[in-house]
Amino acid sequence: MKLFSSVHDVPDVKALVKEALHLKEFPYAFKALGENKTMALVFLNPSLRTRMSTQKAALNLGMNVMVLNMDKEGWALELRDNVIMNGTTVEHIREAAAVMGEYADIIGVRSFPGLKDREEDYSEMIFNKFVQFCGVPVVSLESATRHPLQSLADLITIEELKTKARPKVVLTWAPHIKPLPQAVPNSFAEWMCRGDVDFTIAHPKGYELCADFTQGATITHNQDEALADADFIYVKNWSAYEPYGQILPGNEDWMLTNDRLKITNKAKVMHCLPVRRDLELSSEILDGESSIVVHEAGNRVWAAQAVIKRMLEGL
Amino acid sequence: MKLFSSVHDVPDVKALVKEALHLKEFPYAFKALGENKTMALVFLNPSLRTRMSTQKAALNLGMNVMVLNMDKEGWALELRDNVIMNGTTVEHIREAAAVMGEYADIIGVRSFPGLKDREEDYSEMIFNKFVQFCGVPVVSLESATRHPLQSLADLITIEELKTKARPKVVLTWAPHIKPLPQAVPNSFAEWMCRGDVDFTIAHPKGYELCADFTQGATITHNQDEALADADFIYVKNWSAYEPYGQILPGNEDWMLTNDRLKITNKAKVMHCLPVRRDLELSSEILDGESSIVVHEAGNRVWAAQAVIKRMLEGL
Amino acid sequence: MKLFSSVHDVPDVKALVKEALHLKEFPYAFKALGENKTMALVFLNPSLRTRMSTQKAALNLGMNVMVLNMDKEGWALELRDNVIMNGTTVEHIREAAAVMGEYADIIGVRSFPGLKDREEDYSEMIFNKFVQFCGVPVVSLESATRHPLQSLADLITIEELKTKARPKVVLTWAPHIKPLPQAVPNSFAEWMCRGDVDFTIAHPKGYELCADFTQGATITHNQDEALADADFIYVKNWSAYEPYGQILPGNEDWMLTNDRLKITNKAKVMHCLPVRRDLELSSEILDGESSIVVHEAGNRVWAAQAVIKRMLEGL
Questions:
Q1: ipTM of the complex in this document
Q2: Nearest CA in chain A to B105
Q3: Where does N(2)-succinyl-L-ornithine bind (chains A, B, C) (predicted)?
């Protein structure tokens, strides 16, 4: 595997999930694989789970890890071509990525969208330029429009905890006070559409996701209809795709509570975290039996480890 | 050992000091103990000695180490329960700590006091919530009211360098221009009260420490009286406990000089560092034969290593 | 080797280059040498290449590495003696360096010049105080007036890619919008003057480097004259040595283009990076066959590894 940026980079989703669960059982079985290999984790935005879980995954595989907080420790990168660099950018991504590729065998990159210009964000310019210029395999640590390691961890979690062959999985929009990217819901949708699940998306009118990610999903504006008989509920806020990056007024009543869960099939509640309590998701759910958010976060290690293992095998 | 937050977490202080000195002699003897184990060091405030010495201690024991500067690289944590998180905090400590516990076998946490609200600081809310929610053993890297790794290193240093069975140890207040926490003197006091030393605390009127930490100590406002025949002098500024967090006017003459040392028993001078030269402590002492501050800082490694070793043994 | 701050610390430049190229062929041959040894990399200024390459070099030698971004994670250090520290500096370099020496077997330090006071910058006060007080071997990760790991990597690159016994090497000044240090050109000059090369420096009038670094070089204000028959061209901006730290008006036409390269001997173009495209150096060169800037950056690993290896051997 040379690139892990979306579900389309994975020819055999089931096999990858199975491999991740095997690694969870035997975390150090492939420690020789990464010996003398270096993983660079490049963050243009903050991170907690992704940083720790990916670092741990690489260490489990015997690699050395170098973490670069470019947003804090580095300098501003120029992304555009054909500009005279007489402004505030200090280095072009062409050189920066190529140089990182000299020092690392595999690079992980995190870069959030600006949420101003949809075309620019959905072109994945920053992530794609890293891939183009670094010359080594690249793992997305969340890009402008996708968060594939999160989605793989989500699928692993569902596979691990499901009690029927084909569970009903619901992605439900949740309120927030800040405009958030569509990366997590986009990614979750495209992975679920490839998994052995019945997949429904529920959101208020106006929060339609880009159709490229939701082929095969049932989409509804009726949250209760979606929740009925659900086995897994994935709670997530996102800003509108059209008008891009906006928060639409109202919809505060979309926050999930224990009462709402009654119509589900004792659904387990998921969230990628961080979560704003009692705004996105009620404390009573997060502190109760339904929540599997911490377990889900723990599975980020095995998702990352399965991906990095495949990249190491391909070096 | 599941928790190292104060001297009360240590059933056998002498044995722990002895173990630390043994580790100093054989630093890598237990390198197999930490294999495939991960230590997360979480800093909500800056650090130099604690970060480096604890990282080195964990590496000496064969562990992997992940450093998180939450204050710089992360986001603001919500500490209160029952609040709608529609403000500036991005993640609740309940989730943040629990997730870190998924990735780490042992967690170290640093969190300074606000010095505004004594009750809040002395409740140790932040540190205790980490302990409560992370689900793995926790080492204090200095909390609002204590700095136990420092105090253990101090006791190790005294044990190592003492020339009589029961040396006289003096903690003396020193001037400063900023209000500093009581964590180091609190901690030093409670550890000395458990050690084989004659322990005296000297400070100007108004700088009384909370009595919970000083049971068994001789307390005086007369610095010369305290210094007479002292074998070890621990220099440290702290702000008042009542009125909380305040600096009281005057007392600049409490800074230690070579002249003052004459009445001691060729006392060795200690300080936890960082120290402001010629404000808290004179350059002539720091650059002279009496100072053991750098040696003391070096012993931070063995203090941390003894504690982490016990935690690893209990995993 | 106890100190690596300039070419004068290396008795046998050729042998060191040869050793570096040997390490490039067998990167892990000396992994036992650094077992249980710790390298601390202390940054008072940002870094990308130096941080990653030095970290990788130390890991290749089996060392543990601790990175400290003192400018971001630490606090302000006092450098002057005989001052009462009642201002903004929190710790004196005497204590900070000595304590780091307790935790590290080798220390790397980066500290840029202020470009205000030439005498102060050229006294290398910060770097020299680290050396004086830390008590362990020190590698310069770029100091106020030199960048020796860069220059060693440059010499390695020339040795590796030269097609004649004694190539012509030209250091040519390039335009910039900000005043930059003289560290890279100073260092490059003193290393080239010790290498098996014909060395020419070309710069506009007023950009004369300090003569201490350029003994043996041909110096000209005529760029074309310098470029004629050049085998390697080293492009770099620097601010004036006199008036110190200034940018002189004009000279934008000193930027190198493919057209200018025609009079060279198919010269390879070098730059220490980061480079501002189409201001310091044209995109057409950076994206063309002449540029070896990424390869050059890759060689930073072997330069650092050769130096650290010698220090480890001397411990």
A1: 0.96
A2: A56
A3: 142, 176, 236, 276
